[in-house]
Target: Helix-turn-helix domain-containing protein
Amino acid sequence: MTVENNGPLPGSGANRVPLSRQRRGVLQYLRGQAAPVTAGALARVCALHVNTVREHLDALVDDGLAVRERSAPAGRGRPAWRYRARSPQESPAREYAGLAAVLAARIARTSADPRGDALAAGEEWGRVLTSGQEAAPDPREARERLLDLLGEIGFAPETDPEARRVRLPRCPFVETAREHPGVICGVHEGLARAALNSLGETPQNVELLPFATPDACLLHLGTAEMEGAGADVLGWAAPGAGGARHGAAGSEAPGLDVPGLEAPGPEAPGSDVPGSHAPEREGTEPGEIR
Model:
């Protein structure tokens, strides 16, 4: 396989338990802010009680996904805590990049079937990460849980409403994937396949298209019934401004078009999804949402 695009940005992550839907939403809002924000400011945007938001933020800090820091002193009283999402470069997952590079090179050099061995390794990884989890009876819920898992590993998935067509703008081992795409991308596809089968009661198909657009890989998920309905992984557009955090305008593959999805574009003021920044009003502190 030849890599012609730059592909995803470096990703981050760790072997954590997948976030709940509400906690994932809080993290998405936090990632959309240009500067650290208080729990109260974030609570107003998330439409949640401040104590609930603070609980989620503390858990995100414990998981290494967010950072808590004091505001600069201003007047009397203790400065408020402010929170920001941790950048991928700060993640301890980067420590494993060197090991991944060594293992990928060895598989590529010594294996009679590098892709087959990579898929098998990824499938084993997926089974380990989902071991002991109860299978979801609804295929869509299983797909959403897989996306939670991929997000925790560091892929920052962006998807359509049905969680079938997924854009992966980040990759925890993208540098090694550019050098050995058949191995690293095979591991990731095997991971997705085994994890999705473990997380759901209904068998679903998984197809990973590495470096399919200039700034992302594409992942296609669906049941056999969905495939029979005419789903085409090469005929879909990346999620629109509501779902894109890292895609550059104009970087999508030409001619991609799926109802309900738009190509990544400029940041949408007031959008409530990752990648958006709430509009600042007059008198608002930098980075604070009102």
Remarks:
- The first strand starts at residue 9 and ends at 10.
- The chain has nine helices and eight strands.
- Confidence is low (pLDDT under 50) at residues 228-290.
